[in-house]
DNA sequence: GCGACAG
DNA sequence: ATCTTGTCGC
């Protein structure tokens, strides 16, 4: 698939902040997706050689049946360290490499990490969505920022994730009795719709099938 | 100044 | 993310 827009990759946090504050204005948190959704993609990252090499895996599944349609893998030198709040600068370059090889353009992409549930409202899912001009959802396994009330143990329950008085996402129980997922709009999708798709992509396990498939690819090397 | 901190 | 065996619980 094609990349909608590019920008130079920063080497310092100061430069990264400038990019985040500039691109965040392009983020759309209302539903602007092509429905019915026929293909959903998941991305996962891995690292090799002490983290000096980044490995990105992409899996495109049919929707709603969640069958694997296509996969791709890409490697490239790691060029940015892991710094909370700047994850996208470390992972997106390799992810774009992997996505460029995909022939089946997905209608929606589920990312590992936050969407707008970020200090500057521009987590990795939003960043990727804006660069691709495509609907994306942030599905994180742990909290970056925000507060929320405890939620019931059964699947389907969720609570608003709040930061500075704003609802920035949701804490969602994707499976009964397990730790919740932190879901937020990435780009071109509302929170309510994002929650709906995440639930439809987690029929059996805590993590979406998309990221689980991508994860296996990245690990099988 | 003191913690918190996606993967 | 990554290093790693057994173990607890449904």
TrEMBL record:
It is found in: Cytoplasm. Its EC number is 3.1.21.7. It comes from the Bacteria. Mg(2+) binds at residues 44, 112. InterPro entries: Endonuclease-V. GO terms for molecular function: deoxyribonuclease V activity. DNA repair enzyme involved in the repair of deaminated bases. Selectively cleaves double-stranded DNA at the second phosphodiester bond 3' to a deoxyinosine leaving behind the intact lesion on the nicked DNA. Keywords: Cytoplasm, DNA damage, DNA repair, Endonuclease, Hydrolase, Magnesium, Metal-binding, Nuclease. It catalyses: Endonucleolytic cleavage at apurinic or apyrimidinic sites to products with a 5'-phosphate. The record marks 82 as: Interaction with target DNA. NCBIfam families: PRK11617.1. PANTHER family: ENDONUCLEASE V. This is Endonuclease V. Gene3D superfamilies: archaeoglobus fulgidus dsm 4304 superfamily (3.30.2170.10). It is an enzyme of class 3 (hydrolase). The gene is nfi. The lineage of its organism: Bacteria, Bacillati, Cyanobacteriota, Cyanophyceae, Nostocales. Its cofactor is Mg(2+). Belongs to the endonuclease V family. It comes from Nostoc paludosum FACHB-159. Coiled coil: none annotated. It holds the Pfam family Endonuclease_5.
